[in-house]
Amino acid sequence: MAAERVVEIKNKQVLFKDYVRDSLESDMCITTEKTISLRVPEGTKGVVVKNLCLSCDPYMRNRMNKSEIDGFFSSYSPGSPITGFGVAKVIDSRDTNLKKGDLVWGTTGWEEYTFIEPTNALFKIEHTDIPLSYYTGILVAKAKKGEKVFVSAASGSVGQLVGQFAKLMGCYVVACAGSIEKVDLLKHKFGYDNAFNYKEEHDLDAALKRYFPEGIDIYFENIGGKMLDVVLLNTRNFGRIAVCGMISQYNQENHEGIKNLMEIIYKRVRVEGFLYFDYLLQYSKFLETVLPLIREGKMDYIEDLAEGLDNGPAALVGIFSGHNIGKQVIKVAHE
Amino acid sequence: MAAERVVEIKNKQVLFKDYVRDSLESDMCITTEKTISLRVPEGTKGVVVKNLCLSCDPYMRNRMNKSEIDGFFSSYSPGSPITGFGVAKVIDSRDTNLKKGDLVWGTTGWEEYTFIEPTNALFKIEHTDIPLSYYTGILVAKAKKGEKVFVSAASGSVGQLVGQFAKLMGCYVVACAGSIEKVDLLKHKFGYDNAFNYKEEHDLDAALKRYFPEGIDIYFENIGGKMLDVVLLNTRNFGRIAVCGMISQYNQENHEGIKNLMEIIYKRVRVEGFLYFDYLLQYSKFLETVLPLIREGKMDYIEDLAEGLDNGPAALVGIFSGHNIGKQVIKVAHE
To answer: Which residues belong to any copy of the Alcohol dehydrogenase-like C-terminal domain (chains A, B) (predicted)?
Structure first.
């Protein structure tokens, strides 16, 4: 009787320590080591993957709050590994759509190896000529048509894409970021019509009036707080605010109050939140559009790579003070 | 040469005195008397009307602020009559679409007689079997389809219609108002599924959770402030907030900050402001729908009538403390 050999291996993990109330510090996690079987348990249908790179995203901060929200945005469990998007290689599979050696992206753990139970949220990567880590970020963007577009946090993972899409659509695009270096990137690499460093503007309202004398048609909201309040003052009639994130608020237990919501009435503004996973069915169409643009150099995508799982927590903390230039990614393994 | 006789008549007027900063008091106006010609001046194309009833609407408070907004919501001019919606009878006309004796509704002055320059915003009233003053209010409502509907300020001019439309569409409707008498009206006259007195709820969040254990699909926003903040906590995924007004804020120079806007992201909520005049082209269709409903008694419309122009300012002030039950109207003349 040939018993199947169970291969166990050491697995470094980044565990979530405990709920966070205010600012994120990198001691919210501890690194530990366990063993993991590289075989998918019999009777189950998942895959075991080797994680190659992991995504650092602002929403992860919110999962560190104690909350009762179910599902995708439920709180992390103290003592369990952080989870998030990642790119990984299949080591063993009982999923009929995936085989050993396939590259996938989806939700995985902050660890070297992860057993992923059957889920719809694991995608096979078909095009490996684009750096793999792009898959951790580029899918999140959602372009909107329009004329005068303002993008905040514009050198971040999502912001950098939004502005470029808007430019490709023939929009007037002005973006803001938090350093001269980033502003330079926005102007000269991404080719926006203009860009400014919000940290150097004493009067954000005046800044917006300078760049948008006729007002803003579309605001792509990544920041929240004061920025949202002044944007409301500067929207045009029938302006739209696509709410992707409010990173300025995530480290605050008491959120800033937004006072200019009455502008919504008189200007008939539409404010709408969205999450990438409502658009997963359009993902292949998105790739059809985006991959040629990247290959032909018509679109740039900038990453900020942290090397090694150990540097993960600090990298995640860094995005809340604008440490990253481009999408923050953690490189766990090279293949 | 038969000179045309110019008929001049005394014209009582309610003049806007000066900009208001905080709470509205009825001394924001003064009553005065001038003379007016009952003939449309030669070379112009307007109409002279005798005002029959005038509408008291919350947005009028905002026109008493000093502001630089142009157009429909521009500030009132100190020393000039208050303007607003009204129903009036044509006394003289050089407008080819209107003749002496026609009943019209549109923007008119708080005075006995008004010369109205040519404008698109004057509508001939074709159906006089519905009380005329209904025209000052009923056109503003805009029903939305959906399941679980919450209406605030639900016994006011707009709120009372919204909930009834939602009921006719088969929605579950819960509404709130500020007195037992109003709540009774909402439950027993309008037939809502439930209603509550928000002034008696110490914990609005708990109240909403009681009436909407599964959350709110559509919130029809008339109030703003705290109510909006707790509604955001209680919306369902893909909830919609139709923003019609924020009456709780109009008397405040510093508006309350809304803190729960992050809910918009995770629940993909759409918040959208609207103004009736974007829908004027649909007005005849609206009448086709609503007039039979009123005639057949399937829809109620409650008015709070103040008698006489002199009582206008106090009636307008009253709506900000919930003094009115139903739409507040000023009866200026009976015909």
So the answer is: 158-284
